[in-house]
Amino acid sequence: MNKKTIKTDLICPECGNVFPIMRKQNKQKKTFHRKWLFCPICKKETNHIEAKELDLLLEQISLKEDYQRTEDEKKVYVLRKRSD
């Protein structure tokens, strides 16, 4: 049986660096799930933010007014804009 995997991005909350990982389809986590990982850019362990389909997520967040965004959405949006 073929196990399908899906690409998910993990964003470092310190520097905004994106780490792509592959997760099995039946083991997917929700958007904004947190995962502790070592960031080679920051040189420390940080609580990375999970974002599926990052480009689509950023587009959806940008269409919202600032007061409508959740704290996680604000953090992801600011981190990605800062690292671009």
Care to describe what's here?
By secondary structure, this protein is of the alpha+beta class. The protein has one domain. It contains two helices and four strands; from the N terminus they run E-E-E-E-H-H. It has a four-stranded antiparallel sheet with strand order 2-1-4-3, covered by helices on one side. A hairpin with a 4-residue loop joins strand 3 (34-39) and strand 4. The chain is globular and about 40 Å long.
Write the layout of secondary structure elements.
Layout: E1 5-11, E2 18-24, E3 34-39, E4 44-51, H1 54-63, H2 71-83
Antiparallel strand pairs: 1-2, 1-4, 3-4
Shape: globular
Radius of gyration: 13 Å
Uncertain residue segments? none
- Beta-strand percentage? 25-35%
* Helical percentage: 25-40%
What is the count of structural domains? Answer: 1
Q: Could you say which structural class the secondary elements and strand pairing correspond to?
A: alpha+beta
Q: Tell me the distance between the termini.
A: 40 Å
